[in-house]
Amino acid sequence: MQSDLIISQQAKLLPIADVAERAGILADELIPQGEAKAKVKFSLLQRLDNAPRGKLVVVTAITPTPLGEGKTVTTIGLSQGLKAIGQQVMACIRQPSMGPVFGVKGGAAGGGYSQVAPMEELNLHLTGDIHAVSAAHNLAAAAIDARVYHEQRHGEKFEAKTGLPNLNIDPERVVWDRVVDMNDRTLRRVTIGLNAPGSTANGLERESGFDITAASELMAILALANDLADLRARLGKVVLAYSHDGKPVTAEDIQVAGAMAAILRDAAQPTLMQTLEGVPTLVHAGPFANIAHGNSSIIADRMALRLADVVVTEGGFGSDMGFEKACNIKARAAGKGPDAAVVVATLRGLKANSGQYDLRPGQALPQAIFEPDAAALEAGFANLKWHIENVQRYGVPAVVALNRFPQDTDEELAWLKGQVEALGARVAISEAFAKGGAGATELAHQVMDALAQPADFQFLYEAEQSIEAKLLTMAEAGYGGNGIELSDKARADIARLEALGFGHLPVCMAKTPLSISHDPALKGAPSDFVVPVRGLRLCAGAGFIYVLTGNVMTMPGLPERPGYLNIDIDANGNITGLDE
Amino acid sequence: MQSDLIISQQAKLLPIADVAERAGILADELIPQGEAKAKVKFSLLQRLDNAPRGKLVVVTAITPTPLGEGKTVTTIGLSQGLKAIGQQVMACIRQPSMGPVFGVKGGAAGGGYSQVAPMEELNLHLTGDIHAVSAAHNLAAAAIDARVYHEQRHGEKFEAKTGLPNLNIDPERVVWDRVVDMNDRTLRRVTIGLNAPGSTANGLERESGFDITAASELMAILALANDLADLRARLGKVVLAYSHDGKPVTAEDIQVAGAMAAILRDAAQPTLMQTLEGVPTLVHAGPFANIAHGNSSIIADRMALRLADVVVTEGGFGSDMGFEKACNIKARAAGKGPDAAVVVATLRGLKANSGQYDLRPGQALPQAIFEPDAAALEAGFANLKWHIENVQRYGVPAVVALNRFPQDTDEELAWLKGQVEALGARVAISEAFAKGGAGATELAHQVMDALAQPADFQFLYEAEQSIEAKLLTMAEAGYGGNGIELSDKARADIARLEALGFGHLPVCMAKTPLSISHDPALKGAPSDFVVPVRGLRLCAGAGFIYVLTGNVMTMPGLPERPGYLNIDIDANGNITGLDE
After folding, report:
1. Which residues of A touch B131 (CB under 8 A)?
2. Both B278 and B260 in a single domain?
3. Closest CA relative to residue A22, chosen from A278, A395, A323
4. Across chain A, what does the average pLDDT equal?
5. Residue A112 in this model has a pLDDT that exceeds 70
6. A398 and A271 assigned to the same domain
7. Which residues contact A331 (CB under 8 A, 6 or more apart)?
8. Do A18 and A96 lie in a common domain?
9. Is the pLDDT confidence value at A362 over 70?
10. Of the residues B452, B486, B508, which one is the last residue of a structural domain?
């Protein structure tokens, strides 16, 4: 089989205007960006506001190995399979971050014959949305630090000097870090505002840090806003600092929210692309599901649900991660839950979940994991069972997609399929990677069966509960653990956030994706663990409380042999090595 | 008169495909990005490689006030004036940096009836080129710091562990800082790689800094590359660090140059836009003329010179800044010098150059400067005279454009015009701001006269001279000063760069734009000064030695009342306040 990049570059793509027309998007609702991508205008939503709504399918997975289980392949493949069986379908995916593209993970366009194309445009810049998020985020950072600087410099004369209110910002309590869409470990913790002795020309010295842009609250806002007015309002609520008397200082307070909205205006429109088999695909926002909510945007879903009968989207990592947040955060903001969920599983992934191997991120997987091993598969099956039941916990019908790899044996696949069926869940083997949509028609039929079932979607917790009650529910009902352990900082954060009136927000858990628990070493379906809560951060614009559990990094690093080593351009300007 | 933004938003623009067609660009050489902008492919250069070359007009100015003298207005207005008198003309300008847009300067699209439109697209993102420069730059930064980290961590086992050569990089001599396209004073000097006690998980702690993206060497490379292959080769030569034995460590050495080229591939194509009167305009690169070379790209010039008879471009600040670098750096890389230069002058700007006022950046100008004042005008005229002679020093015919403001009197303009004519230079009053091209036809005729004269372009110095000789020539012949004063660091830098074999590169002077000298307080045509040289930095990819004189900042800060205060979006998503 050819490499992903060669398959993508050799694909015969439709002009994007034709893709749009077939999807029901009018020519004047489209802003083409070259031949292969286009922004879709908000006017589409105004035109179709009363159109019947399609069904929303969220693709999730078992607890992944560091290699991933092929969730994007299955998302794209399923959409192609649905098209192949005659459904009017669209896919909605996140924009890949350039950090992992140049780091350890490579691109995120799917793979084989189930890709969004052109994969090099999807993986690099696309239409610039992530850059816009970085710019808006870093404008707010520069603005709050400059405001603190000028307030300090002028003291009581600040108002008279500038005509702006003195917000009495506490320089020690600027809570807005900076972002960059790159894996850069040395930026995790920094001291900013270094000055020559006796000078303050470079602002106030303080410790700060950089997150990867996917972790920015603005990325969450881009994904969770219902429209442009909602986006603008949410930007105003972002808390950048606290005053000396403990009041939140927002982007609106320092009058930077309008400029942030101007920067994000074009990014608020999803980008239309296509799969290798011509399924119209909206690409929008790029949050990570471990350190953010990890789902594509509500705006893209809203558009797709008005254009198509079935919309396939994807939540990051396992169902304890992106799918949980698709239900408890995204569905709450959108007023629409999933109608079905696909749980992607692989033989190798379940064996990795057996607990029989010492797996560490960044290290090669043991060869045994790719070979038949009935005992390991049986032990790892507990993990798949947990994820099926987890999806059902939200009232969402589950369909298991067994994503076939070349080395997989028919015997093990048949055994696994039987086990899933014995649980009463739907299951299909997917060969979407090798065969495209033709390899996913069985899965497509199963999904249509699940969608025929009346949906009974429910949240795991009510937002109005206390923060501690929500965290407890997440740890116990959400992950199967034995409660939570709050650090002193976490207790203080909770008290402060509730006193400020933000106790009613849902919680966005930052957690390792490599276990259902907080501890990456606990494989399968662990039950005997207590979730440590290190601290909580208010994301008033995104509309959630961000909760740090365990040791979660909000800025990855580059590995010893990073992905960029192989990437180059050839004499014709074609990009090479992006899939190596 | 309406505001710039309203004029721009109300303009009837041609579809960009029509603009391209009228300019002689084929449909398959164009990558439209919406209705109003398009990337132009390199295939145009292949098709037109042997086409006759047009004439290149560089617009420069007197020593500017902090308000600017209307150089972009005159550039755009002149191009419209040339079109009005029947010339086939194109304009080439730089992409505005978002730093000044949200800081103190506002947009950079021209103004009044001489603008590139839509101004909000030009001023925000455009087609993402500056974001691409930031991303490529910061990938190199993350890559070199990660390489140092992994080399240190593994020591002698690094090669065996990774299959990569141990470059023996000196952690103390990583010379590649990071960039952000924002005015952010607190990032000027930072400590990166802070770690918890006993840990090195966040890399190696060291002092570092951020420049604004316009100052990035990669921005210079984007502007100075002749084509994509040249761009790729230059990226490989960028020096990121030095080894323990003093050898430069390049982007090629750590195999990151290919990925940087992939990031910059689309940005290497200029963006086609149009002026309010339909003059095709290529927007490309965005270096600042005080901290970089300050000119639009060679690639854009090459395209425009094959399509049009006259190409109007712009060098930043006064003729001691962008124009000097257009001659000594850009023309050397392009193999083509300017055929004529326009020196923009204003009554208020010359009065500001009289030395009679205490002008400080960021503070309001005194009212007197806008009122008739024969003595101040006469005193300030010395500055215009210097810039006319400076242009002529390069063998380039000069045309003075007196950019008229509403409060200017006929008497003072007539006096000034007479003074210029008495010097034997061409001169015209420009009303391009208020009247568009119709206000610049006299200027257009004068420029055509100047172009009829045989050009006799020459460099100020030969690149092969020693670094010290080049600096001396710049200080004396270039600025009219009395030599240079080298700091100890500068002397050491010179010795090191010559020993490494880079002594033959031209010099890129980082200097205040507010005086012909290094000292912003010295107005008019100062002569009794010695240029202090603080240090020199190798830009082996851009192909010049970057020279720091005086106190030049490579990262601006946000003022007390920053430009972003007024910016917002309205209910229809239109951007407001960008011109306030």
Report:
1. 125, 128, 131, 134-135
2. no
3. A278
4. 94
5. yes
6. yes
7. A337, A338, A457, A459
8. yes
9. no
10. B452
A405 touches chain B (CB under 8 A): no
Pick from A147, A187, A260, A574 the residue to mutate for testing the B interface (most B CBs within 10 Å): A187
Most B CBs within 10 Å, among A29, A145, A186, to test the B interface: A186
List the helix and strand counts (H, then E) for chain A: 21, 25
Token pair of B287, please? Answer: 């270096």
Task: Give the length of chain B.
Answer: 580
User: Do residue B34 and residue A34 have CB atoms under 8 angstroms apart?
Assistant: no
Look up tokens 């020539």; give the residue: B473
| Position A107 pLDDT exceeds 80 | no
A29-52: average pLDDT: 93
CA–centroid distance for B258 within its chain? 26
Residue B74 resides in a domain: yes
Confidence of residue A402 (pLDDT cuts 50, 70, 90): very high
Residue A359 to chain B, least CA–CA distance (Å): 18
Do A84 and A166 sit in the same domain of this protein? no
The alpha-carbon gap from B398 to the nearest alpha carbon of chain A, in Å, equals 40
Q: Which residue among A125, A202, A562 sits closest to B188, beta carbon to beta carbon?
A: A202
Cα–Cα distance, B325 to B40 (Å, whole number): 26
B567 CA: distance to closest CA in chain A (Å): 5
Per-residue pLDDT tens digits for B481-505: 999 999 999 999 999 999 999 999 9
Both A218 and A134 in one domain: the answer is: yes
**How many Cβ atoms are within 10 Å of A420's Cβ, its own excluded?**
22
Q: Which residues in chain A are contacts of B141 at CB distance < 8 A?
A: 184
Which residues 518-577 in chain A show a CB within 8 A of chain B?
557-558, 560-562, 564-569, 571, 573, 575-577
Q: Count Cα neighbours of A570 within 13 Å in the Cβ-side half-sphere.
A: 6
Q: How many domains does chain A have?
A: 3
Instruction: Using the predicted structure, report yes or no on whether residue A4 has a pLDDT greater than 90.
Output: no
A361 has pLDDT over 80: no
Shortest CA gap B87–chain A (Å): 31
Q: Which amino acid is at A559?
A: P
Cβ contacts of A561 on chain B, cutoff 8 Å: 162-164
Q: What is the DSSP code (8-state) at residue B364? A: P
B307 and B398 in a single domain? The answer is yes
Q: Cβ distance A78 to A430 under 8 Å?
A: yes
Provide the domain limits for residue B72: 7-127+267-452
Q: Is residue A563 in a domain?
A: no
Mean pLDDT in consecutive groups of 10 residues from the start of chain B, 580 residues: 86 95 97 95 93 93 86 97 98 95 80 93 95 98 97 94 95 96 97 95 96 97 97 98 96 98 98 98 93 94 97 96 97 96 96 84 75 93 98 97 94 97 95 97 98 93 97 97 97 97 97 94 93 96 95 90 93 87
| Mean pLDDT, residues A297-316 taken together | 97
Q: How much is the pLDDT for A300?
A: 98
- Assess whether B276 and B386 both reside in one domain: yes
- Rounded to two decimals, the pTM is 0.97
A293 shares its domain with A249:
no
B418 located within any domain: yes
> Which residues of chain A does B569 touch, with a Cβ-Cβ cutoff of 8 Å?
228, 232, 258, 261-262, 265
Assigned domain for A28 exists? yes
* Of B21, A264, A24, residue with least CA distance to B32: B21
Cβ burial B321-337 (10 Å sphere, 16+ → b, else e): bbbbbbbbbbbbbbebb
Q: Assess whether pLDDT exceeds 90 at residue A142.
A: yes
- CATH number of the domain at B237, please: 3.30.1510.10
Cβ-nearest to B562 among A143, A181, A192? A143
Q: What is the mean pLDDT of residues A138-159?
A: 96
Token pair recorded at residue B356: 């009679």
- Measured between beta carbons, which residues in chain B are less than 8 angstroms from residue A150? 560
Contacts of B143 in chain A (CB under 8 A): 558, 562, 564
* A230 reaches B (C-beta below 8 A): no
B127 is in an annotated binding site: no
